[in-house]
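Late entry, evening session. Most of the bench is empty. Finally got around to the prediction I had been postponing all week. Sequence below, unchanged from the version circulated by S.P.
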Amino acid sequence: MFKFIFDSDTWQEIYGGIRKNKVRTIITIIGVLWGIFLLVVLLGAARGMENNFKTLFGDFATNSLAVWTERTDTPFKGFQKGRRIQLKSRDIEILKEEFKDQLQYIAPRCQTSSQILNGFKYGDFQISGDYPVLDKVQKKNLIYGRFLNKNDIKNRSKVVVIEEEICKQLFEKDENPVNQYVIINNVNYKVVGVYKSGAIDFDGEAAYIPFTTFQQVYNRGNSIDWMLVTVFQGVDISQFEKDLQLTLKNLHKVHPKDSKAIGGVNLAKQIGRFTGFLTGMQFLTWFVGIATLIAGVFAIGNILLITVKERTKEIGIRRALGATPREIRQQVILESIFLTTIAGMLGIVFGGFVLYIMDSTIGSGPDPTLLNPTVNIPIILIAFTILIILGTAIGLIPAYMATLVKPIEALREE
């Protein structure tokens, strides 16, 4: 077999057959090329979407819940419908004890809107009272300084961490605001950090002050607006969400079936939906790509069948001169593999070029649609191997037809 492959006469015959039908050969190669090209581009686009998705949610603990309270929808234990539920600090301590084996982090939060001044510059922004644990649940991308710490909470420090856009409005360009003072609600706060908000952020442009400071300055007592909760890996977060809401309903004398009193967002569930979409897209990509590959390979088989028919006389002469059926079969199969290989390599090259263009255009900038759209080398090799196997298999049909040619009958037809 190897001797046959490296025989120059074999390749001259293959080249001669291709040269006689240039247009038909080019169309056939394009058919196969398109299949692997489509597969590479679609897989790269799917990977780009996945990378972008991971970047968007990269700052979040994805096994998290956001929980808040609203008004009741059902009368219960003497309370009328429409009662406003208010979270309290004691709720946090009870939840920590009740779910100590499931809760990883819990971040109580208070928020309001206020004006921030720095000299003659000012603006209205969201002010958020938080604990340092928020940085574990919703990681802050710090540009300058630090985030809130335990001493800030303990000492009710007048310190603030501001978002990058707030910094741009209140300070000069390239000015480091750390250790400078701003005025919030007629109180001086030292800026200890500047952060850049992510593409997905619950707070947007916000200024963070210690939770205890917020309670004192805004006279909020033990009230909490809402909280972020993160569970340990392996915990069924959907069941945990139900248990958490039921516990809060019991604490605040809310009917167990009241669907309005306790609100929230299951971030894990939202991410799971998008992850399922990406998985389905990858499956669809493989299905479409392989189906297109098969269609292209069948085109090669049809072309070779036509070629065998057109070369009946040539095959008959070769048989008359002593060529065995095996040699005839090997040549046709080799021609099929050759065309498939050339088409596959060109498809991979063109697909890689298109992914490069996508990365340079929609994959760059501050808000990319696809991030690093690439395909792993092992996947490329698997697709290419599948293509070669299909090309070999489809070549068996015209190869078998070629071995059925009888020398006398072939010469008589001419």
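Two things to note before I forget:
The CA atoms of residues 28 and 160 lie 67 Å apart.
The chain has a mean pLDDT of 82.
Will write this up properly tomorrow.
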